[in-house]
Amino acid sequence: MLTYDIVVVGSGGAGMRAALAAGEGSGLRVAVISKTYPTRSHTGAAQGGINAVLKNRDANDTTDSHAYDTIKGSDFLADQDAVHYFTEGMPGMIKELDYMGVPFSRDENGKVAQRPFGGASHPRACYSADKTGHVILHALFEQCLKHQVEFLYEWFLLSVVTDGNECEGVTAMNIRTGEIHPVQAKCVVIATGGFGRVYWNRTTNAFNMTGDGAAACLEAGIPLKDPEFIQYHPTGMSKTGVLLSEACRGEGGYLINKNGERFMARYAPEKMELGPRDLVARSIEQEIKEGRGWGEGINAYVCLDLRHLGKEKILERLPQVRQLAIEFEGVDIIEEPVPIRPSCHYVMGGIHVKDYKTAMTPVNGIFAAGECACVSIHGANRLGANSVADAVFYGKVAGEGARELAKTRTFGSGKCLSEDAGRWRETFETMRKKETGTDLINIRQRMAETMWNNVGIFRNEQDMLQALKDIDQLLLEYEDACFHDPSARYNTAFIHYVEVGNLLKLTKAVTIGALNRKESRGAHTREDYPDRDDRRFLKHTLVYKNGDEYRLEYAPVSITKYQPEERKY
Q1: Distance CA 133, CA 38 (A)
Q2: How does pLDDT run across 220-230, given as a tens digit for each residue?
Q3: Would you call 266 a catalytic residue per the annotation?
Q4: Which pTM value belongs to this model?
Q5: What domains are there in the chain, each with its CATH number?
Q6: CB neighbours (10 Å) of residue 488?
Q7: Among 124, 197, 277, 341, which one carries the catalytic annotation?
């Protein structure tokens, strides 16, 4: 049995910031478990920026303005005490990252450059060209190595293990050897990212974004909060869903239909292309629905036009965006518009965090941060450039919370851990020997189709009931799944098997939450309930799982300063 004071699961911005906060000068043994090499985590795909009030470009910006923009963008479902805590802490976080060596782009005065992003009243997105997440990951990795954080990479989370309401540790597989280990810890920080791969083919998410931490916590009795709120980024490339950063619109890009119109004038006459993502994504789909897009059906699209920015600005500010468009769409954005359509991008909901000042979940010793967690500062819709900010800020909060608790907490008995690891070893052996059964890829593909068709940007009761029926059938078929790989070392087929199981559990939680929220709010748009209903649904969804049974509870939203009002952009 491996033993550490603190185990962090996930090596993105949230996970590495948590590990650094837990290990820096504490004398505690800290390990990071990650199924990828740390600098290959999905934070590296975050191109556009990280929000903080530095006043470098606009002296009138305030942390209250940042908080109000975030709360308004959330359609008033964000917890306002947590949001203020976040916005007040972000200026200091940028200074920390700057001191670590993150090469932020600079203005003519040598200060950290800032640009406008959707839903923001002031330009506050700090950036490093269009590689912001990538450079932050590398800086954090260097700092973690400096402070003796141990990395168990190419390890895969199988379970979060509890004894009653107390953390015991995790069960994880060493992918390289096939060995399954109980990993004992006084505290565990879950930072495994989102689960956009529930929409397998139409997502900006990497293939490894399968909600492993969220699913493991759900199985451990920790509820998911607001899982129905899934953000669709307006500018996924039409053929692949691969993201073209919001930095494109922050730098002045236009959205145009086949008539050459900047159609956002119809939907957000003041903010235009810089409206909040939920509004812009719906607007694009509406243009396509009404016949003003190019193509038909799933292949229909509108265009993002950047030609007017000029070659020099594109090469300086958006070099990676240009390269992606060339590679995935065969389009040079200097010369022509690029076809785009909304693509699943971010999960606002996640593991229920009950204390925003420590990032602790309802289970003592288990913390969560980043996209896998729901504090909630994003509510029903996240603003652009608040995700990397959330990851590094709440990663630090979680790491500090775990560090302080680990100093006084003792290890559990390890009995539950050993038993859980034994069950997983049996499962691994059984699945390796299995020769016939249901094809996993077929299950995964049908899951993605029913989620996109029935629980997508526009939702209604009939479609979501069909999705539940489909998911239940897929769960039955999953019990008989087979992957035809008897090897122990690098058995990625087994990893895929567990990932598909995780996604199926999460799709059911998403659909149950969406079906029971009979209103439209933020990214959750009901055709049969088109209005926001604060009287009945200004509350957080909590989805619990016990065996095969799911149940719903609700929790109040913290409103400390801003009363809900109609959102206008």
Answers
A1: 13
A2: 999 999 999 99
A3: no
A4: 0.94
A5: 2-49+128-230+346-415 (3.50.50.60), 238-342 (3.90.700.10), 421-556 (1.20.58.100)
A6: 13
A7: 277
